[in-house]
Each structure stands twice: as structure tokens, then as C-alpha cells.
Amino acid sequence: xxxxxxxxxxxPKPQCVAEEVQAVLKKQCVNPGRGxxxxxxxxxxxxxMCRKNILKIAGGNQANSVVLTPSATVALNMLIMGLHLNDSxxxxxxAYEHNAVMRPLFQKQQQTGLHIRQLPMNTxxxxxxxxxxxxxxxxxxxxxxxxxxxxxxxxxILPIHSVCRVARSIQKNVIVIVDGSQALGLLEExxxxxxxxxxxxxxxHKTLYGIFGLGxxxxxxxxxxxxLADTKKYTPYLCGGTGRDSLNLEMQCSTPEDLECxxxxxxxxxxxxxxxxxxxxGNNGWAEEKNLTEKIITGLQxxxxxxxxxxLEGCRISIVSFNxxxxxxxxxxxxxxxxYGIAVRCGYHCAPLIHEFLKDREYGGTVRVSVGKFTTDxxxxxxxxxxxxxxxxxx
Length: 395
What we know:
- By secondary structure, the chain is of the alpha/beta class.
- The protein has 12 helices and 15 strands.
- The protein has helices at 15-27, 38-58, 72-82, 99-112, 130-139, 160-170, 222-229, 266-280, 286-301, 329-340, 354-358, 377-394; strands at residues 2-3, 65-69, 90-93, 115-118, 121-122, 127-128, 144-148, 175-179, 199-203, 215-219, 306-309, 319-324, 342-343, 345-347, 366-370.
- It has a 7-stranded mixed β-sheet with strand order 2-10-9-8-7-3-4, with helices on both faces. A 4-stranded antiparallel β-sheet has the order 11-12-15-14, covered by helices on one side. The protein has a two-stranded parallel ribbon with strand order 1-13.
- α4 (99-112) links the parallel β3 and β4.
- The longest helix has 21 residues, at 38-58.
- It is globular.
């Protein structure tokens, strides 16, 4: 199999991650924070090391907190559904948001009447229109901003820091949530020297090269910490056992770790910690993935009948969406799999808003190809050749 679906989950995982999973399963697969014996204490140490590694690769202040959850989707639900929002609040989203953001927001809107607005887009370049942004924010000041860091449809790198600067110049206490599921571990230290992002979301199994079953968010500001502890502004969306204050039936949020109810997946925690260590040893992959992305784009641009959906060159990484004239997106994906052994993704990619801009409904979405650390030039050449042959069948 030629695997080009790394935006869904990176594959394969580094050998050291696979070995760490095996080692923990065999010798240390116990519940952290729920026992006083040595193995449980060692599990707690693993969890704390994982938190430190996450902050290190994010460039965050080591005094900040990391909340671990079963996935990035759970993390986003905990924040969006837990915040006290009502019909006086305006939430801005980018056109690139995943349903992990949009569906909780839509449900919250149905419950409370909050207002959802989109960050302005330049329809020609498919970028956030920073010139219009200041005007929009003055007209309708933002209370919350939810924006992805890297689009899972086009690979567009959003100008998250520029958006934050404009927002905070108008609304000091705006809550900023950035979905870094496609970015952390690939884009270098996104939180370094930046205290304007309140919550930064991550998914272990994507660009961090961990395994399924773990995600979370980084509390990157003092305001972010205070907000979670303020019962007038936040109500825990998930409740259950944390191993702390067990006789109290009220869910506490005095520290971010209080939000980690239920048993942590210690295997996924150990895998993520090892994966980040591997990343920090020089396995970032930015240059290689950027090079491969441009090779895919150049190759597809030379094929008649192929439509590409591209942000500007300097603002894209790892992910390319396209369609082939005469085929539905799912037909191209099926042919690639069955005839060439190439794995790609097709459809609307759980990102409903951006497809209005792409105007791709006649194709049933897009064909998405996404590279990773272990993708090779040879695989990209084989993929381009396959698309040439598929497009040639129609011409």
C-alpha cells in the first residue's frame, strides 16, 4: 500500500513508538493516579513527562497546563459546550473548521441563540482576508474565536497570530481556541512567545505520530486557567472520577487536571511521549513534507482535466485537494485503491463550510492526498502516474 491519507492519521508510526506500546502493555499498563503502589506512581510520572513534552514541542511556557482527553474532538466539546455562552455572544470561525468545532457550536447555538460568524475570506486566494478582519471585528466584536491552524482539506496554514492580534486590539478578553490537530509537531513551536492563544488543541495520532485514544488542549494564558475555574463562566461538560476529592459529588475545576475524569489511556500517553521525543531528536519533517507537497501540486497541474484547490504557495503544507474531470471524488479514490494500491481520502472531510468556497459538490467533495514523514519521492511519482492514467481514460 502507498499510504497518502496522513491527514486522517499518520502511518506508519515510528518504530520506537511501536516498541514503547509493547513495553507498556507488557509491564506497566496500570491506572495512573488511582493507586499508591510503585507501578501506579511510575504511571503518574509518565503522564507528567508527557505533559512536559507536549509543552516543549508547542513552545509553551512550562508553567502552563495540559489537559489530556480521549481525543481532540472531546477536548473541543469540553471547551465549547462548557463555556457559558448566550444570545449576546458572537463566535467567529474560519471557513476551514472541522465538524469537531462546527457541530458543538451548532448545538450550542440551538440551545442558547449565540451568533456564529465567519472570518472574512479572500475567495480568489482562499486565505483569511486580514484587511476586512479589522472592520468585521469592529462591527461585531468577537467573544470567542475558533480557528484551525492547518486546514485538513487544503493544507492552508491560517494566520492565527495575526487574527489574534487584531482581535485583542478590539476585545481584550476574547477567548481564542486554536485547533492544532493538523499542525502540532509539524509547525515549529506555535505557542513560542505568544500569549494571545488561550487554548491550543492537539491530537496525538496525527502530526505528533502517537496513537489513537489521546488528545487534549494546552491552557496557554492565565485567563484560560481562571476561566475554567470560574463557575460563573464555565461548567464541566464531562463529570466523573478523577482520583481527587472523591467524597465531593460536585465536579471541581480548581486545576486543569481536575477536568481529566475517567481513566487515562496510559498506553497512548506513553506512545505520545515517546513520539514527541522522537520528533525532538530531529524528525520534524517540515522540509520534506513541504517539498513533497509542491511535487504533488506541480505533477497534478500538468495533467489535463485535474482541478486543484490551492491556497498560496507560502501558506500550505502536507495536504492537497483535487478532482478529476469526468469522475466523482469517491470514484477516483476507489480506482486508486483497487487498481494501484494507493490510499487517499475522498468526500467532504468533516469540514462543511470550506466546500461552499471550493464549489465541489458536483464531484461529491474532493480527493485529498496527504503526505507524512515516511512518504517517499517514489510513492509520489507512482501517485502522479496513476492520476495521469485515470484522467487519460476520459480524454
